[in-house]
Each structure stands twice: as C-alpha cells, then as structure tokens.
Amino acid sequence: MLDAVEIINAQTRTNFLNKFYINVKGKNIAIWGLSFKPNTDDIRFAASIDIIKALLQKNYHITVFDPVAMNNIKKIFQEKITYSDSAYNAVKNADALLILTEWNEFKQIDLRKVKDLMKTPLIFDGRNMYKPTTMKDLGFVYHSTGRQSV
C-alpha cells in the first residue's frame, strides 16, 4: 500500500512540475511552505525537497519562506537557495509562486499586495488554498491541483 501512495505522490509532483515548466517564462521563483504539513518544522517526505532539487537542476533562482521549517531546509540546501524573512519578501520580483504547505498565514495574506510585489502574477497552488474565481478576479494566473486553471 505504501508503495502505491509513493508512486501517486511522485506522479503528482511530476505533473505539478510539468505544468510549471510549460507556463513559467522567468527564472525567479518563490516558494511558500517547506514542511510536509502546517504547524510543524518536520520536512521528512515534504514535497518541497524534491521540487527544490528539480528546480535547481534547471537553474532556477529560488527564494523560500516557511514560518518554522527554514532551519531544517537550510541543512539540506545551505546557500543554494535564498531564505526570506516573510511571505511578502519571498515574492518580490518573482516570476512565479509555488505554494506547497497550507499555513494559515498564507490563507490570511493580502493577495493584492502579493500581486503588486510579483514580477508576474502567476501562482501554482499545490494545496488548493484559494478559490480560482477569486484569484482570476484579482488578476492572477492561477494553477491548482485537480481544478481548472484560470
């Protein structure tokens, strides 16, 4: 059973990244959420690790933010990525934002400010945190998991 879950998780990540590669034109990428679930610093089995590794192999510049898991990610990636002190600072001049953990902080964020800070208002939401219609109305190009992109 665990093998089947691991295969599905790997395929989901591959699909997520393929959609990302097709749609992103620039190389400056922000990532929100590094832990495998909210309210923990545990990064074991976190999607962020595989996704960051894949993006680094394609020479993306990555800026990350997580409320508590940053130190654990630093142990793996050290200076290969940039660590931000806030969700807002992470998205400054970003060509795209990937959301990988559904922290409450991200649910309550000022999305208009996020859009204004980004170079390109393009979000890949791996946790389906926002309503696609809301994101479209705010002016984002919004891709989420298992839902139609807007």
Automatic annotation (TrEMBL):
Alphabetized Gene3D superfamilies for the sequence: NAD(P)-binding Rossmann-like Domain
Entry-linked InterPro entries: UDP-Glc/GDP-Man_DH_C (IPR014027), UDP-Glc/GDP-Man_DH_C_sf (IPR036220)
UniProt GO MF annotations: NAD binding; oxidoreductase activity, acting on the CH-OH group of donors, NAD or NADP as acceptor
SMART domains reported for this sequence: UDPG_MGDP_dh_C (SM00984)
Domain UDP-glucose/GDP-mannose dehydrogenase C-terminal: 30-132
UniProt superkingdom: Bacteria
Protein name per UniProt: UDP-glucose/GDP-mannose dehydrogenase C-terminal domain-containing protein
Organism: Candidatus Roizmanbacteria bacterium CG22_combo_CG10-13_8_21_14_all_33_16
